[in-house]
Structure formats: C-alpha cells, structure tokens
Design goal:
Layout: H1 2-16, H2 23-35, H3 56-64, H4 69-83, E1 90-100, E2 111-114, E3 122-133, E4 143-150, H5 156-170, E5 175-179, H6 186-192, E6 198-202, E7 208-210, E8 228-230, E9 242-248, E10 252-262, E11 272-279, E12 292-297, H7 304-312, H8 316-326, H9 338-357
Parallel strand pairs: 1-5, 5-6
Antiparallel strand pairs: 1-3, 2-3, 3-4, 6-12, 7-8, 9-10, 10-11, 11-12
Length: 372
C-alpha cells in the first residue's frame, strides 16, 4: 500500500512539473474532474471541494497551461517499464475517435468525421488519434501514451504512424501494435515499414492479397505479384501453411489457419502473414460470429494459439473512449479554440494514469443490486 501511494505521489509531482504555466489550477481541475460524477458545464467543476479557485479559473487553466506531450509520454513509458519485463512485448492499441462540435460554427479546423450514432453516421467537429498501452491480458484498462488531434492537413493513418514512431523511438521493449480494419491497407504498410514495431491488423473480408511472383522469364519487367488470394472467394485460396484447432471454454471449437508471404497490391515489398480465425460451431452468443481475418507484419509473431486473443485486446481502447466521454467529461466543454481543445484532451491520459496508479489504494463499493 505504501509503495502504491509513494508511486502515485511521485507521478503527480512529475506531471505537475510538465504542465507548464497554471499548473496549480490545472491540477485542481484534474482532481475536480476525477471526483465529479455529473457536470453540465466546465464551470461546474469549480463547485468541487478540491477546486480551490473561482469558476473562471477552469477556463483560464486551459488557456494558460502547456502540457509537454513528448515528456509526458516518456513519463508514462517509465511507469510501463516498472510493470513489465524489457524482453516482453509492449502491446499497444491504435484507433481514432471524433469529438463532435456541431453547434460551434466558428471553431477553426472542424471537419466531417464518422459517428457511431445510429441516427447520424457523420458529425462535424475534431478527430483524435490515440495510441494506448494495454496492460492486462483481461479487463478493460487502456492507458494512453499519446492522445492528439488530427488536423485537417493529416489523415488518421499518417497521425497514427507518427505516434507509433514516437513510442517505438522511446520504448526499451519490442512493440506489438493492434489495429482495426481501417489501417489494414497498403497505405499503412508503406508508411510504417521503417518503424521498428510489429503490427497485427484486422482486414476486411473483401480484401485481395497476392502471393510471391514466379521465376523471372528473362523478358520484360520482373513481376511484382503472384497468384491472387481473394478473401471472399475460397476458390482462390491455396493450402494453408499451418492449421490448428483450439477448444475455447467460451466460444467452443476454433480453427486457425495461416498463410505466409502475402502482400497488398501497392506494397509488394512488405511480406505479411495472413491468419483466419473461425468458430466451427457458432451460435447466437459470444464474439467471432463471422470469420476474423488478420495480417501480421514483423519479426516476432505470437503463437497461433495466442494471436487471436492478443488481437481482441485491441477493443480496450474503445472502452477507454467510452470512459472519457461518459466519466471524464471529455466532450462536455465547448471550448473556443483548437488549442484549448488540445490542452483539455492532453489531460485525459494524465487522469487515466492516475486512476491506474490508484487502483490498489481505493476499495470498490458496489450498490446492493449490482454485482461486483
């Protein structure tokens, strides 16, 4: 217990020194957010007993503070090193989400972004890219290392690749990046081929991959592509290099097949391993109702028995997005400038890391009708 408290205290001291100006007011705002369950505006946090200033300081702190993202990322990686072995994978999930600002026509650099809402599939606002460490084999914890706005001059792929490069440059451990199907294309592969990180990516079932080309005939340009492998056409498949069956206690019998030395059409220089995960007796319950297609790019592939479970840990970052929107009030303030929005967003990883470090200090209290 004393070790956990000392570790949290040191983390708060180091974070305080990396907030730039208005660090006292910003730390008060962080504590107020962490202890306030319901709020209707940013000024409501000034009503918290831990906020020792007037209501206007909630806005002034976001105007004046300057969180040092690069140094904060290095501080987060220090905490990662305390909980993991240098020889083990640093498993990170990468994704992006939108921060809707439909009613803010004067906010600069707004764009159109995908919305998970059932009513409207497109929303207006800002988009943010996140790379988060997944610390546990089970559970919903995701600890962001970087959470940054995607400007109108960037794409989700270019921003995520830059974030992965920064983490790989400062990490002492080998990295395994978990990504959804939006990143399963040649653009991502070409952008990240020089980054020292392995990638496990889900790809869509209508993708088309290519094998190795045959021997050079001696005439014309050498071929770049071999036989076509269409994921939705079994007639184009050739025999898998490796096949295993796993009996999962929740999902039943699962068959996993692997093909080697495949590539996207526009990234023929990067070889990938293709993995198909199928439930042999699917029912209406559980995940993997449809076949799961994955590609692995890198040097140190997890075993087939474990690789599909590794990928499922990617969804922890989705839980974190829901958590910061519902509990940390990320989308609550209607700030007037992109810079204020970015500073407010920089506090989300900082708050999450404090909650993670405090997990052994606090005790959960459940309502009588709620199961633990």
């Amino acid at each position: 217990m004393n070790t956990s408290i000392s570790r949290l205290q040191q983390f708060r001291i180091d974070s305080y020194n990396l907030l730039g100006r208005a660090s006292d007011a910003t730390m008060d705002l962080i504590d107020a957010v962490l202890t306030t369950r319901t709020a209707n505006s940013l000024a409501d946090f000034s009503l918290s007993p831990v906020f020792r200033r007037e209501w206007s300081s909630t806005y002034k702190s976001l105007q004046d503070c300057r969180p040092l993202r690069q140094k904060l990322m290095k501080r987060y990686l220090e905490e990662v090193g305390k909980d993991t072995d240098e020889s083990s994978y640093l498993m990170v999930a990468i994704d992006h989400t939108s921060s809707p600002r439909v009613d803010s026509p004067t906010l600069k650099d707004r764009g159109y972004h995908h919305s998970p809402s059932a009513e409207k599939k497109v929303t207006t606002g800002h988009s943010y890219s996140t790379i988060a460490w997944i610390p546990e084999e089970k559970g919903s914890w995701a600890l962001p290392l970087r959470h940054e706005r995607i400007t109108s001059f960037e794409t989700p792929i270019s921003k995520a690749a830059w974030q992965l490069k920064q983490v790989a440059k400062n990490s002492k451990q080998p990295i395994l990046a978990l990504l959804d199907s939006e990143y399963g294309n040649a653009s991502w592969v070409n952008t990240t081929k020089d980054i020292e990180a392995d990638c496990l990516i889900r790809i869509r079932s209508n993708c088309c991959l290519y094998g190795l080309p045959g021997k050079y005939s001696g005439r014309g340009r050498p071929k770049k592509h071999g036989d076509k492998f269409k994921l939705n056409d079994e007639n184009t498949w050739w025999s898998a290099k490796e096949t295993i069956e796993v009996n999962d206690p929740k999902l039943g019998l699962i068959r996993i097949r692997k093909w080697s030395k495949l590539h996207f059409r526009n990234s023929s220089s990067v070889s990938m391993e293709l993995i198909l995960v199928e439930r042999l007796k699917p029912n209406k319950q559980g995940i993997l109702q449809k076949p799961l297609w994955l590609v692995f790019i890198g040097q140190k592939r997890p075993t087939l028995e474990m690789i599909w479970n590794k990928y499922l840990r990617r969804f922890a970052v989705d839980h974190w997005y829901r958590f910061i929107k519902q509990r940390l009030h990320w989308t609550l303030p209607s700030l007037s400038t992109p810079q204020q929005c970015e500073r407010w967003s920089d506090l989300m990883p900082l708050m999450t890391w404090q909650l993670w470090l405090a997990r052994d200090i606090v005790k959960e209290h459940h309502l009588p009708l709620k199961l633990p």
